[in-house]
Amino acid sequence: MIVIIGNGISGVTAARNIRKRSDEEIIIVSSESDYFFSRTALMYIFMGHMKFEHTKPYENHFWKKNRLELLNAFVLNIDMDNKSLTTKGGNTIKYDKLILATGSKPNKFGWKGQDAEGVRGLYSKQDLDYIEQRSTRIKKAVIVGGGLIGIEMAEMFLSRNIKVDFLIREDYFWNNVLPNSNSKFIMKHFDRHHGLNMIYSEELDVINTDENNEAVSVLTKNGATIKCDFVGLTAGVSPNIQFVKDSGIKCNRGILINEFFETSAKDVFAIGDCAEFKIALPGRRPIEQVWYTGKIMGETLAKNLTGDKNAYNPGYWFNSAKFMDIEYQTYGTVLNQLTEGQEEFVYEHPKQEILLHFVFEKASRKFIGINNFGIRMRHPVFNNWLLNNASIEEVLTDLKSANFDPEFYTKYEDDIIQQFNEKFGTSIIVNKAKWWQKLIKA
Ligand SMILES: Cc1cc2nc3c(=O)[nH]c(=O)nc-3n(C[C@H](O)[C@H](O)[C@H](O)COP(=O)(O)OP(=O)(O)OC[C@H]3O[C@@H](n4cnc5c(N)ncnc54)[C@H](O)[C@@H]3O)c2cc1C
Predict the structure, then answer these.
(1) Measured in angstroms, how far is the CA atom of residue 237 from the centroid of ligand 1?
(2) Which of 20, 61, 174, 431 is the most exposed place for a label (fewest CB within 10 A)?
(3) Of the residues 3, 156, 290, which should be mutated to test ligand 1's pocket, given the most ligand atoms within 8 Å of the CB?
(4) 103 CB under 6 A from ligand 1?
């Protein structure tokens, strides 16, 4: 019997892939929702683009058909000696192998008023339901913490004409991840949004409440009082693992695992947002809280449990997101600051909101990574360049082949290359022939 705690992308991917390769009995225990849904789509429900039902990747009959038993219950404790779990309802579930895929929870840093009414993060379906149910009485929201989820929450509120004051501790947006030039570019875009007031270098100190314990204002560390009807807590997420810690499995910020997802307890594995690699892969973080890495972890663990043991190997880093109207993708490694021996080239379109940021090795010219904003680039093409150690010159001359929107390059490819040549004293030219050859072959 394989028991999985958590019906998110990691747990469900593991379950589906084990089922493809084995007839072993599988139970998925999870307490947030009866069925797996796409967490990344929560904002679109609020904005009216889709209904909750549309976020479920599988029909309800899928689970029975594939003999995946679902149990909506909250797990309180793991008894490793007896290989069993206890749920809130008092049930005991035995396992032969246990997979922990319990995800994350929004960070709270002990602010006074953080558990008051009208104060909430955005992670779960319950968070969304809570915000929805209060939304008609929110005229002004304060959002705390400048990452991707905060920006999604701001976009949700703006879509209903709710004004937003957004407190960001740093003086640049998301610059623990983005280089300053990229942050500034995004910050200019935010300035264009009516009703969105970004307040940099400012932190939450206290959430003030009324006699009904409802949030009414925030006090900032610099002493400003901002009136509001809602406080969004979006200062990052952390692994949701309290009961795992209490059960005695070794944890740091997340559940500690090796490259095969093995925890300190026999036959207990951890994947997805809740897991922390004891030794991170080169250039990667020990905890990876994104959708596709949860999926790869689930797929790899399923193989490991069905006789084909593999270490975690997610390939080159990539990610994508949206900052209001600007799409963002990153391929390879672009850190917020260059490291020793690296060089960068940033192209910003003079009129349109488009920015490309390339990083490469100074000496060898090897291309290392790109951040692209306002223009979509093809993942397989960049992955190929990274795998084949392409040089920055090869990437730039053939950039058109990575573009979803070749129109853009017809107009601006010469411009990009010219700027690169001017900056680095090179004389590369656009490889039009190669591009057309590829088209003919296709
Ligand atoms: C608003 C939002 C937008 C996002 N957008 C993006 C994006 O655009 N791109 C991207 O790559 N990533 C995005 N992410 C991150 C991504 O959604 C997560 O990395 C991913 O969903 C994590 O999957 P998981 O399976 O590890 O955990 P989860 O999806 O969190 O699933 C874990 C489940 O386990 C349940 N659980 C926990 N403890 C227990 C217990 N004791 N008993 C029973 N059940 C329990 C939880 O309730 C939860 O349902 C976003 C996240 C949020 C919140």
Answers:
(1) 10
(2) 61
(3) 290
(4) yes
254 lines ligand 1 (CB under 6 A): no
Domains of the chain with CATH codes = 2-105+238-304 (3.50.50.60), 119-235 (3.50.50.60), 318-441 (3.30.390.30)
Handedness of CA 227, 186, 232, 223 (dihedral sign): negative
What is the spatial distance between Cα 83 and Cα 311, in angstroms, rounded to a whole number?
25
Cα three-residue angle 183-189-195, rounded to 5 degrees: 120
From the CB of 289, is ligand 1 less than 6 Å away? yes
Q: Give the span between the Cα atoms of 351 and 344, in whole angstroms.
A: 22
Distance, CA of 39 to CA of 152 (rounded, Å)? 12
Composition of the chain by helix, strand, coil, percent to 5 = 30, 30, 40
Residue 202's contacts (CB-CB under 8 Å, 6 or more residues apart) are 167, 168, 169, 220, 221, 222, 224
